[in-house]
Inverse folding.
């Protein structure tokens, strides 16, 4: 029998940081930190609580430092293999920089601690991972969108520069105008500024909005949705594989137990003078024996 090893302190700390209640406590503290930062913006209502806000800030930072220290101790060097742990270190490390001289602006980055909800909540983390995985496909689609917008901007500037210089005065202004058309916000105002003198302009606006806003943007959404399905489908497939493995191991254990029982029964039959697995053949053998 294999000798059982006694759990070390690192093992206990590892079970602590992986416990569900500990993760829920981290989420609660992050939410409370966000509420505190939001209340600080109401100086007219909560200005008299500034001392308490500073005390709460020190408490939140101390909690996050202890949390990351426990994770680092429990997981060792493997802690640095997860990019999300690097993100947590960066967000918490900003709070440890002195808020004096040129570093005072970094204090504004403490609001980034709310983003730690993404690294703590598995569902949010899966969505962000899917977004990063979709970047190669998104890059191609966004490249197509940029080519369409640039071509349309040059064409629009040549056609409507004299008619509506506030929207099509130069290339940069036209690109910004096309971005507003891409969002389909206030596009009638833009089109009305040129259709009075250029009745054919409706064709330019309709074609651009249909291609960019309705086709290319839907392609971007399709790429993201497909990647998310693959991301969460891979997790479900891994869970199914683990379940099948456990079921397979359970069946093998059951078969081994049955094999041991059959072996014991065979030994008992031999001890009683019979032949294991015998039937008619055993009866004939017994009949052929001399009395």
């Amino acid at each position: 029998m294999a000798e059982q090893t006694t759990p070390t302190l690192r093992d206990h700390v590892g079970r602590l940081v992986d416990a569900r209640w500990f993760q829920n406590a981290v989420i609660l503290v992050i939410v409370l930190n966000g509420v505190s930062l939001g209340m600080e913006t109401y100086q007219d209502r909560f200005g008299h609580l500034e001392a308490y806000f500073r005390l709460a800030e020190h408490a939140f930072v101390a909690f996050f430092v202890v949390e990351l220290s426990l994770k680092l101790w429990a997981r060792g060097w493997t802690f640095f293999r997860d990019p999300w742990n690097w993100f947590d270190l960066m967000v918490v490390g900003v709070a440890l920089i002195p808020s004096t001289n040129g570093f005072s602006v970094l204090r504004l980055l403490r609001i980034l601690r709310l983003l730690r909800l993404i690294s703590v909540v598995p569902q949010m983390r899966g969505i962000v991972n899917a977004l990063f995985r979709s970047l190669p496909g998104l890059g191609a689609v966004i490249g197509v969108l940029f080519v369409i917008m640039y071509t349309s901007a040059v064409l629009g500037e040549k056609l409507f520069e004299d008619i509506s210089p506030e929207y099509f005065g130069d290339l940069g202004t036209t690109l910004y105008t096309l971005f507003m058309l891409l969002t389909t916000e206030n596009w009638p105002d833009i089109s009305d500024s040129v259709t009075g003198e250029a009745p054919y302009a409706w064709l330019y606006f309709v074609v651009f909005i249909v291609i960019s806003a309705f086709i290319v943007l839907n392609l971007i959404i399709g790429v993201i949705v497909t990647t998310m399905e693959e991301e969460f489908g891979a997790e479900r497939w891994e869970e199914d594989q683990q379940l099948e493995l456990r079921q397979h191991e359970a069946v093998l254990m059951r078969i081994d137990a049955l094999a041991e029982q059959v072996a014991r029964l065979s030994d008992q039959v031999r001890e009683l003078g019979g032949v294991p697995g015998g039937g008619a053949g055993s009866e004939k053998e017994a009949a052929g024996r001399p009395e």
About this structure: The mean pLDDT is 80. The radius of gyration is 35 Å.
